[in-house]
Amino acid sequence: MAFKNDDDKSAYWRENLALLAKLLVVWFVVSFGAGILFVEQLNTIQFFGFKLGFWFAQQGSIYVFVALIFVYMAKMNAMDKKYGVDEE
Amino acid sequence: MDVQTLTFLIVGGSFALYIAIAIWARAGSTNDFYVAGGGVPPVMNGMATAADWMSAASFISMAGLISFMGYDGAVYLMGWTGGYVLLALCLAPYLRKFGKFTVPDFIGDRYYSQTARTVAVFCAIFVCFTYVAGQMRGVGVVFSRFLEVDIVTGVIIGMGIVFFYTVLGGMKGITYTQVAQYCVLIFAYIVPAVFISMMVTGHILPQTGFGATLADGSGVFLLDKLDGLSTELGFNEYTSGTKSTIDVFFITFALMVGTAGLPHVIVRFFTVPKVRDARKSAGYALAFIAILYTTAPSLAAFARVNMIETINGPDAMGTSYAEAPTWIKNWEQTGLIGFEDKNGDGKMFYSGDERNEMRVDRDIMVLANPEIANLPAWVIALVAAGGVAAALSTSAGLLLVISTSVSHDLLKRNFAPNITDKAELFYARLAAAVAICIAGYFGINPPGFVAQVVAFAFGLAASSFFPAIIMGIFSKRMNDKGAVSGMLAGIAFTAAYIIYFKFVNPAANVPENWWFGISPEGIGTLGMLVNFGVAFAVFKMTDEAPEEIQQLVESIRFPKGAGEASAH
C-alpha cells in the first residue's frame, strides 16, 4: 500500500477528480462554449482583427488546451508529493 | 540549381537521416520493439507523438480544407487538438501506470475477458488500416508531384523506407525517426507561412498576422477583407459557417474523443519512463501540434486572399489566361486547377456563383503556396520533404500498432502464450512486413472510399475504445459484461449509421435525413453515449467486477510504483 491509510487514498482520488472537473469545465467552455454554442454572440465583439468567437474557434481554444495540460501536470505533481505517492 | 535537383537533394538527405537513425536505434527485445524499452525522454516523446499524429492530411490538406470551409474548419482545429486534453487528464497517466504494451492489453486485463480483448484487437487493426492506406497514397502523391516519378514508384520508395526502420527498429526506431520527421515537417510548414504572412500583413508570426491589417496600406483587417471578398463573390462569409450548430458540436466532440481513443496515439504514452513523464509528454505533444494547428488557419486565410486576388486581379474583373502566372499552368497539368472560359473573354474569374470559371483543388493551398507567393526554390523542395515526413511518420506509427496487435495481442495473449520473447519479436517483424505490403497495395490501388472511411476510424475509436478505457479507470466496479456489450452496441450503432449514409444510400446523405441533424462524421459522439448507456444498464443487472480487478484499478490511480512496461 502506497498510501499511509485508506483516508488518504480516498482524499487523493477526490482531490484528483475535483481538479479534473475544474479543468474539463474550462476545456468545455472555451471550445464548445465560446467556439461553437455562443460563437455568434461573441462575434459581435472585436478582438484585434478577429471576431472574438471566430478567434476562440480557430486559435484561442488551442492555446487554452495546451495551458490546461501544463496546469494539470504541475498540480498533479504537487499532489503526488503531498500524499507521498510520487515516483522518486 | 533548379527546383528538381534541390528537391532530390533535400528529400534524399532526409531519407538518409531516417535510415541512419534506424540503424542506430535497432530493437533487441519485444520491450524495445513495442514500447522503445520504456525509456524515451518526455520532450522527445512529445515530438514523436506530434509527428505520429500529424498525417499527410494535416500537412497537405488541412489548411486548404479550412480555406474553403472558413469558420467550419474549426471542427478539425478544435477536434484534433482538444482530444489531447482528455488524453492527458483522463487516460495517459493511468494507462502508463498500468504498464502494458497495447490498448487491447488494457481492455483484456481490466475486463478479465478474452472476448473484450478480441473485440479491441479487431477494432485496433481496422482503425489503423483505414488510416494507413491514405498515408501511403499521400507519399505517392507528393513523390509524383515534386519528383516527377509515377505514383507507383513513389509508393514503393515510401514502403521501402518505412519497412527499413519499422521492421528493424520497431517502436524504438520509429520514435527517434519521428523526432527527426517532426523537425523536418514543422520547419517545412512554418517557413512558407512566415514568408506569406510577411508578404500579406507584414507580421512575422502567422498567428498575429491572421488578425492584422493588410500590408497594402489600406488599413483593412485581413479577415474583414476576406469576408467582403467572399460575400461579393457569392461565397458564405468566411468567419461564419454553413454547418448547423448541433452538427459542428457533434463532429468536434467525435473527433476529440476519437483522438483520445486512437490506439496509435495512446500507445505512445507507454514509451516514457514514468507516470509523471506521461503527463508531461502529453503537454509537449499538444504544444508541438499546436504550432502547426494555429498556423494552418492563418495560412488558410492568407492563401485564400492571395488566390482570389491573383486570379480575379486587383479590380476583381478577372485576369488574362494567356498571361497567367506559371504556377497556374504547372498545376493545371496535375489536374488540381482547371479553367473553362465560359463567357469567352479570355479572362479567368473565380467565384461562388454562376460567374465562376475556375476549379481549384483544396490540396493546392499548401503545395502550391510557395509558388503562388514566389518563394525561393529551396522552400518548394522543403515542402516536398515535409509532406513525405508527415506521411511516413504516421504510417510507421500505425503499422507498429498493427504488428503489435497481431504478434502480441493475438499470438502471445491468445493462440500461443508460450512462445519465447525472441519468437514473438520475429512474428512482430513479420507482421510489420506483411502490414506494409498490404498498406502499399492500397496506396497503389486506392479503394475509392478512403476519404469516406476516415469518419469510420474516428467514429469507431470514439464509440468503442474511449468509453471502455474511461470506465475501466473511473468506475472500478464496471464488469466485463457491461464493457463488452457497451463496445458492441457503440460500434454497431455507429457503423450502421455511417454505412447507411456513406455506402448503402449516399443519395440520402443530406441534413434533412440525419438524426437530430447529426452528420455521419459526428455520429461517433452519439455512439459513445450509446456505449456508456448500454454498459451501465448491463452492469446494473450483473455482478460487479471481482475484488482483485477493483484492486488493480485502485493501483493505477496513483503514480508510485510504475515500473517499466512489461508483459506480466
Automatic annotation (TrEMBL), chain A:
Domain Sodium symporter small subunit: start-end pairs: 10-86
Transmembrane segments: 20-40, 52-74
Pfam family of the protein (one): DUF4212
Organism domain of life: Bacteria
Keyword Transmembrane tagged: yes
Keywords on record: Membrane, Transmembrane, Transmembrane helix
Alphabetical list of InterPro entries matching this protein: Na_symporter_ssu
Protein name: DUF4212 domain-containing protein
Origin organism lineage: Bacteria, Pseudomonadati, Pseudomonadota, Gammaproteobacteria, Alteromonadales
Automatic annotation (TrEMBL), chain B:
Chief site of localization: membrane
The keyword Transmembrane helix belongs to this UniProt entry's keyword annotation: yes
Residue spans crossing the bilayer: 6-25, 77-95, 116-134, 146-167, 179-200, 248-270, 282-303, 375-404, 425-444, 450-474, 486-503, 523-539
Localization terms from the record: Membrane
Membrane topology: Multi-pass membrane protein
UniProt entry tagged with the keyword Membrane: yes
Keywords: Cell membrane, Ion transport, Membrane, Sodium, Sodium transport, Symport, Transmembrane, Transmembrane helix, Transport
InterPro entries in alphabetical order: Na/Glc_symporter_sf, Na/solute_symporter, Na/solute_symporter_CS, Na/solute_symporter_VC_2705, Sodium:Solute_Symporter
Gene3D superfamilies for the chain: Sodium/glucose cotransporter
The family this protein is said to belong to: Belongs to the sodium:solute symporter (SSF) (TC 2.A.21) family.
NCBIfam families according to UniProt: Na_symport_lg (TIGR03648)
Protein name per the record: Sodium:solute symporter family protein
Organism, as annotated: Alteromonas arenosi
